[in-house]
Amino acid sequence: MKEIKVLGTGCPNCKATAKLIEETAAEKGIAITLEKVEDIAAIMGYGVMSTPGVVVDGNVVHAGGIPAKEAINAWLEGHDAGSDCSGNGASTSSGCCG
């Protein structure tokens, strides 16, 4: 079972990200636990400065903007979906680098 955390203060993008992850996991038949982390100190503890952030099995995979469904599929399947601006293995699908 994948442990996924959506980091954010509860903004519409954070809610949309959580919903998209839930829907994608359900479509693929992959069991997940989804936790929403809204505490600013906890979010910053992951080194995420732009929300929503996504943590999969303890690793930050995304920061800033709603992730692409293709990236979510890769996370759920255990594949590397690229790296973000900070080089921490997060997805660039949100356009945070551009």
- Helix-strand category: alpha+beta
| CATH H level, superfamily name | Glutaredoxin
Adjacency order of strands in the biggest sheet: 2-1-3-4
Indicate the proportion of strand residues: 15-25%
Shape: globular
Care to count the β-strands? 4
| Strand/helix succession | EHEHEEH
By CATH, the architecture is named 3-Layer(aba) Sandwich
CATH topology: Glutaredoxin
Biggest pleated-sheet summary: 4 strands, mixed
- How many domains, in number, for the residues? 1
Low-confidence stretches: 82-98
**Helix percentage:** 25-40%
**How much is the average pLDDT?**
85
Radius of gyration: 12 Å
How would you summarize what this structure contains?
This protein has 98 residues and is an alpha+beta fold.
Describe this structure in words.
This protein is α+β, with helices and mostly antiparallel strands and 98 residues long. It has a single domain (2-77), classed as Glutaredoxin (3-Layer(aba) Sandwich), CATH 3.40.30.10. The protein is built from three helices and four strands. It has helices at 12-28, 40-45, 69-77; strands at 2-7, 32-37, 53-56, 59-63. Helix 1 packs across helix 3 (69-77). The model is unreliable at 82-98 (pLDDT under 50).
Question: How do the strands and helices of this protein lay out in sequence?
Answer:
Blueprint: E1 2-7, H1 12-28, E2 32-37, H2 40-45, E3 53-56, E4 59-63, H3 69-77
Parallel strand pairs: 1-2
Antiparallel strand pairs: 1-3, 3-4
Helix pairs in contact: 1-3
